[in-house]
């Protein structure tokens, strides 16, 4: 079978990953806000006699690299061999989208245009003449509906045809007489300068624009003497255009786009306020924005607990029945103890939270698909930029951190400067990820029984995490990095009606990861805890004389001032460093003997903790170092061990001090 390779490029949020998922059957993150895909993702499928590899690129507005993920796309288009670049564009924003289209064509790429969301554009009053667009641009244009999957067959057929007959599209553009003339002169000055698959004209344009990467290469080329002449030309052009040369090129491209628009697109007459505008006037309102955000978060937890709580009890009962049955079948002994205490006690206790986690993810993905996530970032940005001078773009990683810190840390790639990236990366671990939910749910159920107080306590912890995250980011930025953030302008996507299918899919994927974790790392730790609780031979299971008891007892005094200086808590916290759910499973394994059928481990916990020390414990688990996976992500993304260790240190210090304040302060105020 013949192999082909297509790249999927386009502006953010136009549906590239939706196309990718349709073609490959894979499940790349799709949602209604710009900037989800931050790295190259490759997938493949067979079509007729071809084995096609497609690469999903991060979204870009241009190929002038301003941030890591823009650089990623540009490198892919210029340096990766490909048979065609499929440029997905959003018909409703065709004018802005075409800017990238022209830039892709400039790289000489064999371009095919996929026109997505045409129905929305038509609803909004656009009329697009597709045939004419094809002719004016000089590249194939295929209408698709990525979500429904229509037009994709034709898109692939056309791309294969294009791959058989590759065209260098760079020649189809003109920048006007002056710029074209100078570009041709530069071409002659650097005849041997080659960059990836880009044509000479692209290299020449970039030299005139003063592109860093290309200038660097030119400095090291045999013709480096000629750079002086390029500088002179730039001066000359600046005189003519009375502006920077790169702006002159930008204007030239927009000029072309204007022509294309006139030829092929009829714009809606008059501006009528869309539904999105109407909703945004309330949701992003200066005064209402923040309260609405809090209400949304609060409701998410309220709904999660109200529906999830009873389901959780049901699963718990199921485990009880299974344990009783196992005991009856196997009799008392090591095997039944391993299964009942170790595995069901530990892994089972974590699995009871599956309904809660699933409902939480379902609701979060609804909020994302509707388009509210982008508004939340926008609203918080405004407050944060005013109050603390932080870049609001940092809030997308933080909001993603609600799901999983690793995703949040990866998302820092959208930030354009290093100091924003690192300080956000170190802030993300303070955001309450879904792995903390079992801890909160377990403790709030033990001490704060009605769903409303449960929600309030959980909500309070989430807000605390966010506040600490923001403060940490701010302090790092102004002390270690000492620089200013630029305000960021976030593009707000239109509100869309979410599909049940996509929300369920999302929920399933994320929820499945949780189950998988339970079956691997959590299971392993439970068995380890069970073994250590049984050693040395003959010791009473899970007593202070077991190895694990002695180990816990050794470190427990450290936590005494925080209100939970008993060895089981110490052990749970240490093992919980691997993954935060393990805090719960360790309690489950250690307490399974004492837990009665009625209340399970909650009953044991309520004998050990007081409400105050329970809150102190939850605060500590919220803030203490991130799980190994998140730490590995910090190391990977910051490319240094240093920041990983800084993160561990900062988290430990903050967690300890805050839990101490909560507990001792609470005692002082007369709480117990
Ligand atoms: N109604 C409709 N919605 C679509 C279509 N294609 C994509 N969407 C929605 O548009 C949003 C963005 O889609 P993605 O595939 O994530 O976009 P992307 O281009 O990969 O975005 P980034 O990775 O952020 O650059 C999602 O909410 C999709 O469900 C379509 O053809 N019709
Ligand atoms: Mg994407």
What does this structure look like?
This protein is an alpha/beta fold and 672 residues long. It has 3 domains: 2-171, P-loop containing nucleotide triphosphate hydrolases (Rossmann fold, 3-Layer(aba) Sandwich); 174-266, Helix Hairpins; 289-668, no CATH class. The protein contains 29 helices and 8 strands. The chain has helices at 16-24, 68-79, 94-106, 118-123, 130-137, 152-164, 177-189, 200-209, 212-219, 227-241, 245-264, 275-283, 289-330, 334-351, 354-370, 372-388, 395-400, 405-410, 418-427, 437-447, 451-481, 500-534, 547-559, 567-575, 581-591, 601-608, 611-623, 628-638, 641-668; strands at 2-10, 41-47, 50-56, 84-90, 111-116, 127-128, 141-143, 265-266. The strands form 2 sheets. The protein has a 6-stranded mixed beta sheet, with helices on both faces. It has a two-stranded antiparallel ribbon with strand order 6-8. Helix 3 (94-106) links the parallel strand 4 and strand 5. The protein is elongated, with a radius of gyration of 29 Å. It starts with a strand and ends with a helix. Bound molecules: guanosine-5'-triphosphate and magnesium ion (MG). The site of guanosine-5'-triphosphate (GTP) has 25 residues, from helix 1.
